[in-house]
Amino acid sequence: MNSDTPNQPAIELERVTHRFTTPDGRALTALRDINMSVGRGEFVAVVGPTGCGKSTTLSLITGLARPSSGIVQVMGKPVAGIDPRIGFVFQHDAVFPWRSVLYNVAAGPLFRGESRQVAFQKAREWVSRVGLAGFENHYPHQLSGGMRKRVALAQTFINQPEILLMDEPFSALDVQTRILMQDELLKLWSNLGASVVFVTHDLEEAIALADRVYVLSSGPGTVKSVYTVNLPRPRIISEVRFQPTFVELSRRIWMDLRQEVEAGFNRAAEVSAVGGRL
Amino acid sequence: MSAVVSTQAQDTQDQAALAKLRRRRQLVMFLRIAFLVVVLGGWEVAARTKAIDSFFFSMPSAILGQVWTWMLEGTAQGSLWEQIWVTLSETLMGFFIGSVLGIFFGILLGRNALLADVFSVYIKIANSIPRVVLGSIFIITLGLGTASKVALAVVMVFFVVFANAFQGVREADRNLIANARILGASSRQVTLAVVLPSALTWIIASLHVSFGFALVGAVVGEFLGSRKGIGLMIATAQGTFNAAGVFASMLILAVVALGMEYLITGLENLLIKWRPAPLTE
Questions:
Q1: Residue B200 in contact with residue A115, Cβ under 8 Å?
Q2: Residue ranges per domain, chain B?
Q3: In this complex, how many residue pairs, one in chain A and one in chain B, have their CB atoms less than 8 Å apart?
Q4: How far is B172 from chain A (nearest CA, A)?
Q5: Of chain A residues 47-106, which have a CB less than 8 A from chain B?
Q6: Contact flag B193-A86 (C-beta cutoff 8 Å)
Q7: Pick from A82, A99, A141: which is nearest to B182 by CB?
Q8: Cβ distance B221 to B90 under 8 Å?
Q9: Which CATH architecture has domain B59-271?
Q10: What is the DSSP string of chain A?
Q11: Would you tell me how many other CB atoms lie within 10 Å of the CB of residue A97?
Q12: Which residue of B has its CA nearest to A160?
């Protein structure tokens, strides 16, 4: 399956800049000279203030967006279009509301040309693996937010992605459900062994889940610093956050991040003040 | 023990709420009927006491009498059922063809930005023309038969459905489309599995309106020139100063339209069963 060199990192961004043109013709730089590398089977979290280009980074890796300059490589090859080895979990519900749970989970294999029988067989397994057995024929609107997220996870994991990209997947959930889903994610990930990029604005979530944490600065987004999380696995989310290593790391990263958040806030305030004068 | 008591209290409360709901429904029904009686009764009384001229405005009893006569003895052009069937079949054909074309081109242009940019201006122009006048052209080119009525109905329906299908495609959730693409969907699969279902709500909303337009197209077409149909009945009644005949035809058209509306609602519920049920009262 892997014809490419195994020593290559799973994902590599080299001096990547992404500019786009606004409808009124101004060029905005979302990302500038980003360098990032994710090893095979590594779990990387990306944190940063609002609007620092976290989501853009993921779009570049999926091939939904192209870099203005620099190289984005997946499994040692430049990204050209959507790579079938990639799975993506969205911030907001992206399950198909007109399809049952079972069909939603089977969507990937069906799109990829598997027979209905095989696809539904696999889907049944995955539905029960994420704890939704008995809900196969429910429609998404009949489920809670946490259950819909489980559908989304099953929908992504059924394709057995080698690279898993997650864009603030749990930000819309309440705290208790979020912790359950984080444990669920770590469990699924440890079986799959995919390389993960997990974008979040929740610093504690980043530390609890990841091997390394990238801190981005805003306007335009650049990598400010990278932290290694030396917490043993398997981790239990509800307990890991009370370990001294966790607390210390969380404090250090927060000091780093706080400047960025404040700078971002000031910049936004300035822009709106200028806008008010015009 | 206390649990049992509270369940009983709950039951009593539920029953009281249900009774209240029932009373309200009865009141609404009563007021509806009362309104109808007052309006029709007032009309009838005004016509019989010569307060209004029944030659121009007819009266409910004469209109019902006209419908009754048509049902028993047929119209000037033949049996009433045949006239209804002719108009209904023209309407249905126009409705069907217009809807299919509207959905097809709506999705095509919605999914293809270049085509949309090129053709949107022409569609805007075509849409601003009062399309009923095309009826005359269709009668000249397609003759007095069914084809000219169907063509007018198609033109009436097409733009409504097209505009809604187009908008529905444009409103399709970008996240859902991105998700489908990453899960492995081809462009065709995205259209069929994501864009079409999400546009369906818009399309079906437009079908309610456009059936009315199809009926207008068919009736106006018959009005302009035909050998059969409800439109011709109206034209004939107008020519003989038969006000009751015009109102009676209107009544028949209303019944037909309501019947079809009922069927479309049934179709809607069948197609959009994934949507959460609307809250009732």
A1: no
A2: 2-52, 59-271
A3: 60
A4: 11
A5: 62, 64, 82, 84, 86-88, 90, 92-99
A6: no
A7: A82
A8: yes
A9: Orthogonal Bundle (1.10)
A10: ---S-TTS-SEEEEEEEEEEE-TTS-EEEEEEEEEEEE-TT-EEEEE-STTSSHHHHHHHHHTSS--SEEEEEETTEE--S--TTEEEE-SS--S-TTS-HHHHHHHHHHHTT--HHHHHHHHHHHHHHTT-TT-TT--GGGS-HHHHHHHHHHHHHTT--SEEEEESTTTTS-HHHHHHHHHHHHHHHHHH--EEEEE-S-HHHHHHH-SEEEEEETTTBEEEEEEE----SS--HHHHTTSHHHHHHHHHHHHHHHHHHHHHHHHHHHHHHHHHH-
A11: 17
A12: B183
Q: Within an 8 Å CB–CB cutoff, is residue B185 touching chain A?
A: yes
Nearest CB neighbour to B182, from listed A88, A96, A142: A88
Q: Which of B171, B179, B203, B279 to mutate to test the interface with A (most CBs of A within 10 A)?
A: B179
Q: Is A108 on the interface with B (CB under 8 A)?
A: yes
A63-72, B35-44, B272-281, range with greatest mean pLDDT: B35-44
**Tell me: the pLDDT tens digits for A187-240?**
999 988 899 999 998 899 999 999 999 998 877 788 888 999 988 888 988 889
Please give the mean pLDDT across all residues of chain A: 87
Residue where the block lists tokens 């029932």 = B22
Instruction: Give ∠ CA A156-A159-A162 in degrees, rounded to 5.
Output: 90
